[in-house]
Design goal:
Blueprint (H helix, E strand, L loop, with lengths): L5 H13 L3 E7 L4 H8 L3 H4 E5 L4 H8 L15 H18 L6 E9 L10 E9 L2 E9 L6 H18 L4
Parallel strand pairs: 1-2, 1-3
Antiparallel strand pairs: 3-4, 4-5
């Protein structure tokens, strides 16, 4: 997956803000640039109810608040299961923050990107969008050694923007 050009990113965020969709977003491990992307374009207050970065294990546990999450032992916390649990928790939070609003989504992102220690597994991200119609998952694969941390984060953030746009209503 390739990153967007700046003009495409701007247009995507503008379209998201022009939609009726409101969202709660949680990003852990990568894709953090999506928060700045959403907040830097006028209209964010119509879209973003809350953005969280639950990096600490306790912060993630608080976000999930007792949800039963079975994490694959080989994947750790960076898995489809975790992204979907995060997205579901975010949608529940959106319902609390905007009661009665009919176009709410929750977005969960978990990623394993370039770091300052050697990683055994591949670089990847899982993101999920929870809508009234169910859960929608995207896996972003990244090739080790091909990009810097900032570049990998950008690829993931753009994938998140594309997913939000795909599940936003006009």
């Amino acid at each position: 997956m390739e990153p967007m050009e700046q003009a495409e990113r701007q247009a995507t965020v503008e379209a998201i803000h022009a939609s009726a969709t409101m969202l709660v977003l949680a990003v852990a491990g990568g894709g953090n640039a999506v928060i700045t992307d959403l907040l830097a374009v006028p209209g964010a207050s119509r879209t973003v109810l809350e953005a969280r970065v639950p990096y600490a294990e306790t912060a993630l546990a608080e976000l999930l608040k007792g949800a039963v999450v079975v994490v694959e032992s080989t994947a750790g916390a960076v898995s489809q299961t975790m992204a979907e649990a995060m997205a579901s928790a975010c949608r529940v939070r959106a319902e609390r923050l905007a009661p009665g609003h009919h176009d709410l989504i929750g977005v969960g992102v978990t990623a394993a990107l370039v770091t300052d220690r050697t990683k055994k597994g591949d670089h990847r991200a899982h993101l999920a969008v929870a809508t009234a119609d169910g859960l929608h998952h995207v896996r972003v694969g990244l090739k080790k050694g091909e990009r810097s941390r900032v570049e990998e984060d950008r690829v993931v953030a753009d994938a998140v923007l594309r997913a939000i746009a795909a599940h936003s209503t006009a």
